[in-house]
Write a structure and sequence with these properties.
The complex is a heterodimer of chains A (253) and B (267). Chain A is an alpha/beta fold and 253 residues long. Chain A has helices spanning 3-12, 28-38, 80-88, 129-135, 208-213, 233-242, and strands at 20-23, 46-49, 53-54, 76-77, 94-98, 101-103, 108-109, 112-114, 119-122, 138-143, 151-152, 180-185, 188-193, 196-202, 226-227. Chain A has one domain (3-252): 3-Layer(aba) Sandwich (Glutaconate Coenzyme A-transferase), CATH 3.40.1080. Chain A is 21% helix and 23% strand. Chain A has an eight-stranded mixed β-sheet, with helices on both faces. A three-stranded mixed β-sheet of chain A has the order 7-6-11, with no helix packed on it. Chain A has a two-stranded antiparallel ribbon with strand order 3-4. In chain A, a hairpin with a 2-residue loop joins strand 13 and strand 14. The model of chain A has no long low-confidence stretch (mean pLDDT 97). In chain B, helix 2 packs parallel to helix 3 (56-63). Chain B is globular. The model of chain B has no long low-confidence stretch (mean pLDDT 98). Classes of the chains: A alpha/beta (253), B alpha/beta (267). Chains A and B meet through helix 3, strand 9 and helix 4 of A and strand 6, helix 4, helix 5 and helix 6 of B.
């Protein structure tokens, strides 16, 4: 089973009808998932994005997810400052964030591997993370590289807030949103249970041991591990229609 | 109204070494690349760069040793890869990077545009981005009305803002078509503003649709006619981003051959 499609369908299922979802830069998988949700179970979903357009009618997904191509057919135009104002009113429902490191409490790191002042690797920076991880109703985190290097006990730098140390009440730090609801990787889907990360389902083609062996902390394993639901023919057809250039594979290269 | 037409060369030389420069556009889109290239050519030194989500404009200036410090929420090339020169210079400790989140760049620029020393925002608490600033530019405050914990963002006032627009008249009445990004805030926040434009149009054309003037002439200090002035970034309604050009840049930089790129495209 093709992993990009598995991840896209898993992401799309996290968007409920009528919700406002937002994607940032470097997010073709999310852009396709949002398009897929809108064209399947969530026709009234509000598609908002870093390209500053609302509900675009684009022909195909672009390599840059901030591309002006996303203005085509949009019903409205909302700048980033306006979108952030709206999020700060508590009205943005779901935001998707990637992480170079993701820890067991759903904190993400897009800043540095190693020390901030003398990093081993300087990553691009967290973009909207430190703000929207607290403002969005919930966040969905993804990585295409499920490994012990990515799925770590503790991130080197908390760029995006998850459940922090697992004990602190996010609301005491001014969070409007609930925090990460799911982590979607190339191997499976994970949620949070009593403040720890739990396996929800494993993608076809991977075993429970693959997941455990490639995770740098102890996952909560439910009694019965489900297999992630495979994409339907219709879902695959929509993905192919919006992404004939296979941009969804870029993040796996 | 006063005519403010400059050449690219004059515009770049009007930016002092060691000044702070906010650069318009976002990622692969509508950055003032022709002016950035001219700044590289003139070997500006010691700049502090300000932006939200940035790509080639920042990486090229950083790689060309024009920069001592950068403030941004993201510097990269989306799914094409990390920003090679930014990465290298920070890892070697050769430049300082003050990581923001998008909202603190927006809020800092808004504060300056409004003539305020700071503005509050929600969010940020619990993120190590707060620690990077160690109370300098982001500080926890209590709302005087509700007692809620908020974050005060110090005003960001660039010495110079440079943006690329679709059109301007010779006086600086500027139209931006499509995405605005923070260009309007950067303009209002800055001490000095330079606009490069695809086309210089008659003021009579501007007067037909004053509601389309994103930036009025009195906020602009210099106007440069720069067709293809955002290239290789996109300029909405004029041209798309040239992804192959960005790939070539990244390939050359990864091989340590930034000079080859500069010889071919900048000098």
């Amino acid at each position: 089973m093709a992993i990009p499609e598995m991840m896209i369908c898993s992401m799309a299922r996290e968007i409920k009808d009528g919700e406002m979802a937002f994607h940032g830069l470097a997010s073709p998988l999310v852009a396709i998932a949002m398009y897929l949700a809108k064209n399947t179970h969530a026709p009234n979903m509000i598609y908002s994005c870093v390209a500053e357009s609302i509900n675009p009618l684009y022909d195909k997904v672009t390599l840059s997810t901030g591309d002006p191509a996303l203005l085509r057919g949009a019903t409205a135009y909302m700048t980033i400052p306006q979108a952030f104002d709206y999020a700060q009113k508590g009205k943005m429902d779901v935001m998707f964030f990637g992480g170079a490191q993701i820890d067991k409490h759903g904190n993400t790191n897009l800043s540095v591997i190693g020390d901030y002042e003398k990093p081993k690797v300087r990553l691009p920076g967290g973009a909207a993370s430190a703000f929207l991880c607290m403002m969005a109703g919930r966040t969905v985190i993804w990585t295409t590289n499920h490994s012990e290097k990515t799925m770590v006990e503790k991130v080197d730098f908390i760029t995006g807030q998850g459940f922090l140390d697992g004990k602190v009440d996010r609301r005491s730090l001014g969070a409007l949103g609930l925090g990460p609801s799911k982590v979607i990787t190339n191997m499976g889907v994970f949620d949070f249970y009593e403040k720890g990360m739990r396996i929800e389902s494993v993608h076809p083609g991977f075993t429970l041991n693959d997941v455990l062996d490639n995770t740098g902390f102890e996952l909560i394993v439910p009694e019965k591990v489900e297999e992630t639901r495979k994409p339907t023919e219709k879902e695959l057809e929509i993905i192919e229609r919006i992404d004939p250039d296979q941009i969804r594979k870029v993040e796996f290269e | 109204m006063k005519e403010k037409l400059l050449t690219l060369k004059e515009a770049a030389s009007s930016i002092d070494d060691h000044s702070s420069v906010a650069i318009g556009g976002m990622s692969f889109h509508r950055a003032p690349m022709a002016l950035v290239r001219e700044m590289v050519k003139q070997t500006r030194k010691g700049l502090t760069l300000i932006g939200r989500e940035e790509g080639l404009s920042f990486d090229l200036l950083i790689g060309s040793n024009c920069v001592k410090k950068a403030l941004a929420a993201y510097i990269g090339f989306e799914n094409l890869g990390l920003a090679p020169n930014f990465r290298k210079k920070v890892e070697k400790g050769e430049i300082k990077f003050e990581e923001h989140a998008c909202q603190s760049i927006v809020t800092g620029l808004r504060a300056s545009a409004m003539g305020l020393p700071f503005l509050p925002t929600r969010g940020f608490l619990g993120s190590d981005v707060m620690g990077v600033h160690n109370g300098r530019d982001l500080r926890v405050i209590d709302s005087p009305f509700t007692g809620e914990k908020l974050v005060a963002v110090r005003a960001i006032e660039p010495d110079v803002t440079i943006i690329h627009a679709q059109m301007s008249d010779p006086y600086g009445n500027t139209r931006i078509i499509g995405q605005m990004f923070e260009d309007d805030l950067m303009v209002k926040a800055a001490k000095k503003v330079i606009v490069t434009a695809e086309e210089i149009v008659d003021t009579d054309d501007i007067r037909k649709h004053p509601e389309m003037t994103a930036i009025p002439h009195f906020m602009v200090d210099g106007v440069v006619k720069a067709p293809k002035g955002a290239y290789p970034c996109s300029c909405y309604c004029y041209y798309d981003a040239d992804m192959d050009h960005f790939r070539e840049y990244l390939d050359l930089c990864r091989k340590g051959a930034l000079d080859g790129y500069i010889d071919k495209y900048v000098r």
